[in-house]
Amino acid sequence: MMLHDHLGLIQAAALRAVDPYPAVQRHLTRVENTLHVANADWSLDDATRIIVIAVGKAAVPMAQAAVDRIGDTPITGIVATKVGHAAHHTLPETLRVVEAGHPVPDAAGLTAAQAVASLLATTTARDRVLLLLSGGASALLPSPAEDIALTDLQAVTESLLRAGATIGELNAVRKHLSRLSGGQVARLAQPAPVIALILSDVVGDPLDVIASGPTAPDPTTYVTAQAILTRYNLVEEMLPTVFAHLAAGVAGHIAETPKPGDPAFANVNNVIVGSNRLAAQAAVAEARRLGYNALLLTTFMEGEAREVAKVTAALAKGARAHGDPVKPPACLVWGGETTVTVRGRGKGGRNQELALAAALALEGRPDVALLALATDGTDGPTDAAGAIVDGRTAELARAAGWDPTAALADNNAHPLLDAVGALLRTGPTGTNVNDIAVLLVG
Amino acid sequence: MMLHDHLGLIQAAALRAVDPYPAVQRHLTRVENTLHVANADWSLDDATRIIVIAVGKAAVPMAQAAVDRIGDTPITGIVATKVGHAAHHTLPETLRVVEAGHPVPDAAGLTAAQAVASLLATTTARDRVLLLLSGGASALLPSPAEDIALTDLQAVTESLLRAGATIGELNAVRKHLSRLSGGQVARLAQPAPVIALILSDVVGDPLDVIASGPTAPDPTTYVTAQAILTRYNLVEEMLPTVFAHLAAGVAGHIAETPKPGDPAFANVNNVIVGSNRLAAQAAVAEARRLGYNALLLTTFMEGEAREVAKVTAALAKGARAHGDPVKPPACLVWGGETTVTVRGRGKGGRNQELALAAALALEGRPDVALLALATDGTDGPTDAAGAIVDGRTAELARAAGWDPTAALADNNAHPLLDAVGALLRTGPTGTNVNDIAVLLVG
User: I want to staple A258 with a disulfide (CB 3.0 to 4.6 A). Which of A264, B157, B362, B436 is the partner?
Assistant: First the structure.
């Protein structure tokens, strides 16, 4: 079916736009002895070393792209990625490659974080620091303060999550228990100029949140962190080292994280090289090339997957009936990340659940199809990246012996979508910029 | 604040566009001896009578608009509206005005339905039938078949709803137990020409669903209706008259409802004179007049109110950060009707709950405001029509001693929004075209 073919092309274009290797290369070129990094020019005439710190699930291809561009200037540094993600790398021996634990940090990550801190402590004005960040960096490079054990950091994280703290509150506390996050890499790297090329896995690309913001000003303080523990009724007896550390910070015995305007950021450049919006924009561009009236709705989508599916279906109905917000052939693209409140016992992921709910809401409608995709290729605890559904999917499922409504109620989208051939299996894509959805109304 | 003022103007424009009196007058004009009704011309030279059947909550102003346009041609007919809605009418005595029960049908409605059937049975080719339909018509004009009691009709409705039947299934059954719905008014009105001017209170304006489709072809059959009762395990012992009636229909002893292509519709014209989309389009037009880049997203919105709020907030974030889908000053409008799954014990309505959830999702953002409005002026079991919230609403609520998150969890938006002056109290607007939401990003 044509719509399905088009969704395949649009999906490929979106993923291509956020592939880590070309994403880094687009922002890094060398002409003679000048390295053009994002909007800055680094003369290499007086450069002693280029220090490459690559952290995250895409650290290896990002580091490889940098190495391939930099050429003959001495490179040193550390590449920390998830276990299994550096199996076949061809990086030079001057880069120390570490495979560390994710999502649960481990000793390898601790050691790598220590090595990063030590290396950055040696920088001079003749060094250049190139930071390459991608999803998973916080867990892969855990850097608890000296008087805090990794287990303490994990314990306070879990306690806050259980108590209902927001991600912003969680980050404020963790930055004040860590040595690299909250702008502290920028401070450590001084006096060398720093450029961070960032593949964003956080909706909205907030620099102080991605990878815990190693090169971004931290507006929060030790006082903020203390207040958050109090707000959620965490008690000193359970987390004595944490409380002691924050108290020492409030008393001024430990340095604050660098704030906005801090001189540590004078020579720091943060550049988003890959993001959900870049993928979504590429999807829109490809859809236009295919003849669709394409519109990017938002890259901040959130909400319960099955309800977001209803909204997406409502957009399809309006496009078909009235040409709202664009006339058919219409393509509506959104990015972001939905959530699933698990109530059943089935198997699925947020994109698969969204696709199944949309299939029900769009049942019987001809010439409409929806792609729901986890850009990292892994949607929930399944081997699928998402799904493509249309107005016949629900009926096909019934013909295959499934009850789509019951499957949705049981959070069991995966086997149903598998039974009707609707699943997308991309394998790991090597990138991660959250999810995108592409709706076609032919 | 400017955004609030603008939302007030936009709200007024939207409601003005679907005010029943001018809506009917826009589609009905008399020039000399010709009545222009929608796209048809009715010569009154040979017209004996104009039969006006007005049913619904807006029946009185719609009938008044028709009377004021028609002039000296004899008018006869029936106006059936909700108890209290005809208190101060100035309609001519040749129109029989009935105040009937809603949402629970009563004897007055039964009598009115009988009178409508009797009157339509007298039509000749020299009569003209003008049907004026608005929200509530199904309940206000209950027309069970002769061998079906009103209580039977209510019992089968309740049983099907409890069993989880869809609104489409419910309608298929009810049309086959009734004398006026499912196109049967069109058949009764023959040989007179019929024009139905319709103020739609159903999302998407489906002619066969609004007011149970008195002048629209019914694609469903007695066989369909029987199958639905079987599907939901309803048994003959509980509803003997219903089962007997449907069996007689299947056996061909009672006429089917008229199907698509039936000659009964040859001289019938259905015209939507007021709808959610007209209100939404008026909102967009007024926003453009005020200088906003305005976009109508969809008029088919559905989903859980608090989740739709998150999507709406996501659109605000995208507009602010990137100009997706339109650049600020941006105005995004949607129409439809959300739902609330009641889990708490508080007081609210779907629009108030949406507004509160949006206030939380937009907290701290400057220059963004959202109007969520029930166009009939009654949002849930409250005296409010909806609310206007912005990035400061949540903080204001806390300052007033409220916990917005807890209030949302308790479905208790009404008193919180009241405490911060965010409620809209329009009183009954006299119209009903579901809900609209207007998002401004300044």
Answer: A264
